[in-house]
Every structure is written in C-alpha cells, then in structure tokens.
Amino acid sequence: MSKIFTFSLLLYFVSIAWGQPTPPPDFTMTSIDGITYNLYTELNARKPVILVFFSTSCGSCQEAIPTLEGIWKRDAQQGQLGWVWAFETGNASVQTIQQYMQSNGASYVVFRALQNPSILYPETGYNITYIPEFVMVCNVNEYKKVPYEVLAEAFKSCSQALSVVDIRKELSIKVLPTAVVVEFPEQKIGQDVSLIDVLGRVVATTRSRVFSDSVSLPKPKLPGVYIVSIRYQNGETVSRKVMILE
Hints:
- By secondary structure, the chain is of the alpha+beta class.
- It folds into 2 domains: 3-163, Glutaredoxin, CATH 3.40.30; 167-244, Sandwich (Immunoglobulin-like).
- It has helices at residues 3-15, 39-44, 65-75, 94-103, 151-163, 167-170; strands at residues 28-30, 36-38, 49-54, 83-88, 109-112, 133-139, 142-145, 172-175, 179-188, 192-196, 202-207, 212-218, 224-231, 237-244.
- The strands form 4 sheets. The protein has a 5-stranded mixed beta sheet with strand order 5-4-3-6-7. The protein has a 4-stranded antiparallel beta sheet with strand order 11-10-13-14, with no helix packed on it.
- A hairpin with a 3-residue loop joins strand 8 and strand 9 (179-188).
- Helix 3 packs parallel to helix 5 (151-163).
C-alpha cells in the first residue's frame, strides 16, 4: 500500500470520527442459517455491528472478505464481542450465497437483503446506492459509512468507547460460606480474577475467556482483609477490599 494511499485513509478515518449522533435504523431479520437477529438487541448488549452490503456477482466485493473475516474472528470473537452482518442485495439463492461464502473463506453472518428491502432505502434504512458498501454501527446513537480499509480501526474505536465505564461502580462482592463471588450487573469478560492476602500472596485465582456475569473463588481458610484484583481483556484493572470474618 502506497504512503499516499495510507495517508489518505488516515485522513478519511479522522473525518469519520464519531460526531453528531445519528441513531441507526433498527431492524429484525433472519439469516440464511435460520437465526433471527435484532440490531438494537445486540447494540444494547454492547456489541458493535458492521453491516456489509454486497452481491455474489460483484467482483470488487470479494476484496473486502479477508478484512471482514479477520474482524469477525479476531476482534468480534465470532459474536461474543460484536458482529459482522452481510446482506446480499442481488436476490441470489441461499445455496448460491452459501457457495460464495465457502469458496471465499467467509464465515460471518449473512442475510438476503430482499427479505427486508426497507433496510436499503434512504427513508427507512441505510440508503444503499452502490455495492460494496460498509456501515459501522457503534451503538444505538451512532453509525457511519466507512471504506473496508478502515473497518478494523472503526470497530476497535467503537469497542474501546463501549468499554470506557466506571467498573468500580458495577462491581459487587459476596462472601459465601465456601466461596467469594464477584458479580457484574452486565456481562463482561473477567480475564483474570485473583484473591490476594495482606502479604501480597495470591491465595486464589480464576480466569474467564467468555462472557460472564459472575466468577467464584474458593473462600480462604484464614479470616482477615483480602484484595480482589480483576484484570479485564481490554487491559482495565480494578481492586476491591473484602473482609473474611470466619
């Protein structure tokens, strides 16, 4: 990629930075795999969504597939942290779409756009005037059309914005007869959760790689003050004191 082209992409990405909020049109659709999704349900679960508008007969649409597949597997964690939703606009059959996806090494979610034409219209949808076209939906207040070359950066920007929360206000710790339970009002990924004594020794630890609303640590045998230390996947850390009485 030339330096001029790279610089142009950087300028474009700066120009699409989230500014005046524009709520994305909501929709509910069933994928070619028979699973029904609602956009706002996923956004309210703090999962950014990339909308891809393509056709199986569009040669240039295939150029974006490696980038989209990388985001789907690496950044979105195949639906755990976000979504890549593709909409076939050319009225291809389900079998044709499946063959297209398989031959191009794509595994993200696909819909037939003509199942819900309003998603394409300017009055009720995303005003799709050509293909391929890519829309980054960050949350229920913001969305932007972006070129596929900066989709990965746009997705990461959305994910980082969604993770900027005061974790300390959301954390709850319960001491049970045999366990110390850390609870989150919202499902989060607790990458590492440790229980540390006053001498700095780790007396219990657990690691979570999936979404969870709570984690459980074995209760220490000795009473005293302990520190619950949590490190999230996005690098944020938080610590809380807990008293073990007996």
